[in-house]
Each structure stands twice: as C-alpha cells, then as structure tokens.
Amino acid sequence: MSRLTLGNIFKVSVALFFFPFVPLLVLMIGVRRKNGKVILEGAGYVALVLAAAAVAGYSSGLAVLSFFVMLGVVAVSAMRSYMLRDLWLHPRGRGPQMMTQSPTQVRQAGDPASTGATTEDLPSALAWSAALARKNKNRLPSEAYVSILETCQTLDAVIDAETRQPLGDPQFEYELAATVREYLPSVLRSYVAIPPKMLETKQASGRTPNEELVEQLQLLAGQAETLYASRHRRTSAELTNTGNFLRERFGHRQGGFDFGIK
Fold first, then answer.
1. Does the pTM of the predicted model rise above 0.85?
2. Which residues contact residue 63 at a Cβ distance below 8 angstroms, ignoring those fewer than 6 apart?
3. Which of 112, 125, 153, 165 is a good FRET partner for 101, with 20 to 30 A between their CA atoms?
C-alpha cells in the first residue's frame, strides 16, 4: 500500500530538515507508540550523541572521534527510522492492505485482508495467521514460532474483550484491526515467500531474513501488549467510575433496606 500522502511527505521533510537530530526521532517514535524497546533504543542513540558532544572539547583528537561517533549514530538512526516506518508513516487510507497471490486463492485461504472491517471478523483473521505459522512451523525459527503464537493469544484476548464490550475508540479499533489484518499477516506472508536456502543469507540491510523476522515479531509483540494493556486499563477505569457512581448514589442507604433478606 502506498505511503505517499501529504502527512507522510511533511513528516519526512521535517525529518530531513532536522537530519542531525534523527537520533531523537527514534526516541519519539517509541514514545508515540509506547514501545519500550524502541524507547530504550532511541534513548541509547541520544545518550551516545550527548556523550560524544560532551567530550569533544577536551582535545582535537577527541573532537575528531566525537564527530565520527555522532555521524555514525545519525546514520544508524536514519536507517532504523526507515525500518520502523510502519510505526510513524501510515499507509494511504489507513485501510487493510491486500496481500494476495490471487483473488481466488486468497478467498479460499481465508486471507484476513479479504474480509470486511468488522470486529466480528477479526478472530478468523487472527486464526489465519496462526494457521499459517503452524503450517510453516518447521521453517520458522523456534523463537519466532513461539512469539507468533503468544502474540496471537494476546490479540485474541483483546478481540474477545472488544467484542463483548466495545470501547468505541476509532484509533484503538484501527490499531487493533491493522495489527491483526495487515501487519502480522504481511510479515508472515513475506517470510514464507522467501526460498528456504536464502533464509540465512544476509540482505542489503546486513541482516538475514530470519533476523528480520525475529525483530519484526518483537515489534508486533510489543504492539499487542500495548493494545492489551490499553484495553484493560480502560476497562478497569470504567469499573472504578461505576463504583464511584454507585457509592455516591446509594452508599448513604447502606443498612436502610433489607428487602426481606435475612
């Protein structure tokens, strides 16, 4: 799905204009998406830049070394910002991505992207991803297979809670639907399409497909945990609000009515 939108063009333009501050962008992405691992990574980049700048004034040698350290951190941060583009550059229309081999094959396989956007269909979309992982269990790295199943379990709990008592939050609904319908299936379909003999071959990024899969699944696991925590934090808050109302409305009547119950 195309990411060429006015909002994304503006974001990239700002990032290029403030290119020396790219290490801060990784930190901001983590904070915005409440992803602890990305926050720690971004904080590490910022700390390296600050440390290099602090020692630069002690000698000319340290100044040269600090310059190259900061240049390297900026380059790595720029690359990581691109790899994390799914977290800050949204696709056009923010709708589900059609990840198909052919329309007939997709409908028969139950591809989550071929279904509607209702919450009722999310369990089948999630089951599709879990089934694809089980089908390719022998190809997947062991830690990746376990991560997929755990992520599916977490998302299933969120879907179940949302089905029973919807929050009515469009942003939350989009994040949940996009994770279940687009992000997780996209990672799995892209991985299983790679020939087995190339899974340990380093790509242009310097990583193997297996390493890329593990990292992307870690990001998705973090997103699933964030959705889970957000969903149940709001449910707990609603229960507390209901309790406060009941205490205010009926608390003064305690002991005043027994309704014939002994």
1. no
2. 56, 57
3. 153
